[in-house]
Amino acid sequence: LFRFKTFPVKYLVVLDTIANRDHSHLARNLAWAVLCAIGYGEGGYTLDKYAKAGDKAVDNCAEECFGWMPDVAASAD
Q1: Is 17 helix (H, G, I), strand (E, B) or coil?
Q2: pTM above 0.70, yes or no
């Protein structure tokens, strides 16, 4: 949808298909869709899959953010 855009996107609105449902369902489904889109999850949502995909995402983010730091275990030898 957005790959052919020729205008700057400042906001993206995501609406739930079920009216008056608690926002936590939409947030959870949106987070799962993002994790699947970037390759950390696949298939339908389960709590176990969500936890594992979230752990992978956090681990990769931590490696990227803290990659500049020396490895403490290697320097202790």
Answers
A1: coil
A2: no
Handedness of CA 60, 47, 22, 38 (dihedral sign): positive
CA–CA gap between residue 62 and residue 56 (Å, rounded): 10
Amino acid type, 77: D
Joined together, the tokens standing for residue 36 give 């699947």
Distances (CA, A) of 55 to 32, 58, 62, 63: 13, 5, 10, 12
In this structure, how many other beta carbons lie within 10 angstroms of the beta carbon of residue 50? 16
Number of Cβ within a 10 Å radius of residue 49: 17
Q: How many residues does the chain have?
A: 77
User: Mind listing the pLDDT tens digit for each residue in 45-71?
Assistant: 999 999 999 999 999 888 888 888 887
